[in-house]
Design goal:
Layout lengths: L1 H30 L3 H12 L1
């Protein structure tokens, strides 16, 4: 029975980390929507 608890806790921690990463991604994506970021990505794509 103990391994079920370990798996459940591990899955819960993974979900929490995933949610935090998702919210962090949303915050950075909204803040970084500026022209210079896009041009920088295009330069990297050409090189």
């Amino acid at each position: 029975m103990e391994y079920l608890i370990i798996i459940f806790v591990g899955a819960a921690i993974a979900h929490v980390v995933q949610i935090f990463c998702y919210f962090d991604y949303l915050k950075t994506s909204t803040h970084d929507r500026t022209p210079h970021v896009g041009s920088g990505m295009e330069l990297h794509g050409q090189a």
